[in-house]
Amino acid sequence: MSAHELKVDGLSVRYGHASAVTDATVTVPGGTVTALVGPNGAGKSSLLLAVYGSVPSTGKVTLDGEEVSRLRPAARARAGIAIVPQGRQLFPHLNVADNLQVMAELLHLPKSAVDNALDRFPILRTRLRSLVGVLSGGEQQMLVVSRALMGSPKVLLLDEMMTGLAPLIVQELARTVTGLAREGVAVLLAEPALGVLRSVVDRGYVLVRGEVVAQEEDGGRALDDAYRAAIGVERPRELRPTG
Ligand SMILES: Nc1ncnc2c1ncn2[C@@H]1O[C@H](COP(=O)(O)OP(=O)(O)OP(=O)(O)O)[C@@H](O)[C@H]1O
């Protein structure tokens, strides 16, 4: 698969008179995991939602050189942009299969798409008829990722995907995300702290008060340092290089 590329150029999001994102320029090349880090309220979700088209914005979003900024969310999804939203946004009173079916219909996919979506996380096959509300947090997140992957997206936006999950689940999801990036998907993950994701992140941006204040190309550890410098927090002693 060839590598895809998402470009966000001069993107701004306003809610009434309040500015959530100001003139953000971010590139997400396929083949790498790109992170967007910033404190709570920095505008990470707003930027991701604007790329997906579910909040209004100004600026330009292009996917593989084609402008998608004027498309509605369903059309952007069909163009290849997928999102794992913060808070998951599943239908808790529908079962696993029906939650996937809803996305299959949105993307105009054949019935077999539901079955294919389960290949990444086989444990979900054993839960097909379970109501989503009774799944564990980890299973729900696997379902959200499976749902996002149904249309074989070119761009995957992940909003605080790891929050509140057990370390083993985080590792499994991180492996999946890295694999997708290596397949050429342009992966952008937003987190308020990288934590264990430091080791899977290749490059990224620091967002503070809606503005991109730093860009880092040298991996998650360097991005973490840039983030700490931007918000004026020192790295804990155990994370500092020795010697
Ligand atoms: N629907 C909305 N209406 C009005 N203001 C909003 C709305 N959504 C977000 N905001 C405001 O926009 C700013 C950016 O919020 P956003 O959720 O994008 O940040 P974030 O970095 O994702 O934060 P968090 O990590 O807490 O989700 C915040 O000041 C927030 O209060």
Which range does the strand content fall in? 25-35%
Order of helices and strands: EEEHEEHEHHHEHEEEH
Biggest β-sheet, characterized? 6 strands, mixed
State the shape.
globular
The helix fraction, in percent, is 25-40%
CATH class of the domain at 5-32 and 42-86 and 153-235: Alpha Beta
In DSSP terms (H or I, runs of 4 or more residues), the helix count works out at: 7
User: What is bound: which ligands?
Assistant: adenosine-5'-triphosphate
DSSP strand tally = 10
Second CATH tier, the architecture of the domain at 5-32 and 42-86 and 153-235: 3-Layer(aba) Sandwich
Distance between the termini: 42 Å
Mean pLDDT: 91
Stretches where pLDDT is under 50 for at least 5 consecutive residues are none
Structural class: alpha/beta
CATH superfamily of the domain at 5-32 and 42-86 and 153-235: P-loop containing nucleotide triphosphate hydrolases
The whole-angstrom Rg is 18 Å
Q: What is the strand arrangement across the widest sheet?
A: 6-7-8-3-9-10
Pfam family, one: ABC_tran
Keywords: Amino-acid transport, ATP-binding, Nucleotide-binding, Transport
Domain ABC transporter: 6-234
InterPro entries: AAA+_ATPase, ABC_transporter-like_ATP-bd, ABC_transporter-like_CS, BCAA_Transport_ATP-bd_LivF, P-loop_NTPase
